[in-house]
Amino acid sequence: MIADPAVFDDEHLPRRLLHREAAVDYLSRAWEPALDGDQAHDVLIHGPSGVGKTSLARFTLQKLTTHADIYSAHVESLGKTTAGVVRSVLHDLPGSDPATNTPREDLCIELRERVDQPTIVILDEADDLPATDILDRLADVEGLSIVAICHDHEQWLSQLDNQLRRRLLLKELALDRFGVNELADILEARARRGLPSGVVTREQLETIADEVAGVARKGIQSLRQASLLAEERDHSEIGADDVADSYERAQRYILEQNLGSLPFHHQLLYELIRVGGGLKAGELHDRYEAVADDVYRGRGLTPISERSRRLKLSKLEDYELIEVEGKNRHREYIPSYACVKTSIEVNQII
DNA sequence: ATTCCACGGGAATCGGTGGCAA
DNA sequence: TTGCCACCGATTCCCGTGGAAT
After folding, report:
1. What is the DSSP letter of A7?
2. Mean pLDDT across the stretch A292-299?
3. Are residues A163 and A279 in the same domain?
4. Domain that holds residue A144
5. Could you check: is the Cβ of residue A329 within 7 Å of any atom of nucleic acid strand C?
6. Which CATH number do you get for residue A329?
7. Which of A67, A223, A254, A343 is the most buried (most CB within 10 A)?
């Protein structure tokens, strides 16, 4: 049933960014100086997950770079160190990658040398970045401007000192969830390009938009799952049952992508929490130690310390795979969505 | 008031990799 | 080509913190 699967990819950029015209405009104006070879303004884009912050930045950038000589870099910041961010920027700029053991200082020097025309760096998922350090170094680079994307702008700004804020010329741009009609418009446009005509009604799209509370990523994935379900069930068009069952599959799909991108240690911890149906910290560590020898055997990996496990756990939380409740010794790790599984077998061992 | 427990920041350490000189 | 060294990211070690339990 799906004519063009790419339309439903997270990375897919539509021809027009519906209902974000004002934001595109704002961002374009902030970047206008770059058209004349000057340094653009820095922008902080903030708002909830899945409302199109990254799409907005990429879309507007694409528009800009088609008629101007501008370098750009897109950095997936989550978990990166300062050196990692600089390295990632260099990777996106013309030229070859520096050696993996190049000193941080040398990376920054190389960055200053390579930026010889206006450059826009998108720092995606910038919430947990060592922001002061990174911005300090990026702000040092003549011609380079930053677009930081984060969820909580107040928290993000609070870590910057006044001096840095002045150097950054920071503009702010808030994105919110879409209204039901707005998101339905967006889904309609995707359906037009990705699905045969007439397989889904406007009413169904509004139902989806309402259910996902204006979060575009969830809406688009739900539409995709609804069409997959219709296909599996041999429906000639999407039915009410397909729509009804699509949300859970979409949510699961999103989380499975997240989980699959994580290394083994994370997945094992997740699986223990999932199988346990939520665990107190102490119990989680006990179970980990109980299964570790068996589970790690033959994988060329060794079990990790409690401290490292805590680092992995906070990453699982970042990825919305688990939730943490309670404080201190009452802290409990809860699987956000227990139907999202790993391929690791821990059932029999416990 | 004291103990318990877990968190999470920071410094030290480990293992792997590329550059470089012999 | 080989052996050494600097460096990185990942991990561990150490410890201060703070709320609940006793």
Report:
1. G
2. 86
3. no
4. 20-174
5. yes
6. 1.10.10.10
7. A223
Question: Is residue A81's beta carbon less than 7 angstroms from any atom in nucleic acid strand C?
Answer: yes
CA atoms within 13 A on the CB side of A91: 11
**A254 and A271, same domain (yes or no):** no
- A141 and A250 part of one domain: no
Residue A108 pLDDT > 80, yes or no? yes
Is A79 near strand C, with its CB below 7 A from some atom of it?
A: yes
pLDDT beyond 70 at A130? yes
| A166 and A28 share one domain | yes
C-alpha separations of A190 from A78, A185, A223, A253, A296 in Å: 28, 9, 9, 18, 44
Distance A227 CA to B10 C1' (A): 51
Based on the domain organization, do A252 and A282 belong to the same domain?
no
A281 CB neighbours strand B below 7 A: yes
Nucleotides of B under 7 A from a protein CB: 4-10, 16-19
A100 CB and strand C closer than 7 A: yes
For A296-346, the pLDDT digits (tens) are 887 888 899 999 999 999 999 988 999 999 888 889 999 999 899 988 888
Crossing angle for the helix pair A240-260 and A202-211, to the nearest 10 degrees:
50
Query: Which nucleotide does the CA of A306 lie closest to, via C1'?
Result: C12
Same domain, A76 and A162: yes
How many beta carbons lie within 10 A of that of residue A166, not counting itself? 11
- Report the predicted TM-score, pTM, of the whole model to 2 decimal places: 0.86
Instruction: Say whether the CB atom of A260 is under 7 angstroms from strand B.
Output: no
The nucleotide lying nearest A327 (C-alpha to C1') is C19
CATH code, domain with A194: 1.10.8.60
Taking the CA of residue A150 and the C1' sugar atom of nucleotide C20, their distance in angstroms comes to 34
Which CATH number covers residue A149?
A: 3.40.50.300
Q: What share of chain A is helix, strand, coil (3-state, %, to 5)?
A: 55, 10, 35
Distance A307 CA to B11 C1' (A): 14
- Count of domains forming chain A: 3
Domain boundary among A174, A191, A218: A174
Give me the helices (H) in A130-263, please.
Answer: 131-139, 153-158, 162-168, 180-194, 202-211, 216-232, 240-260
The integer distance in angstroms from the CA atom of A290 to the C1' atom of C20 is 28
Residue A224 has what pLDDT?
97
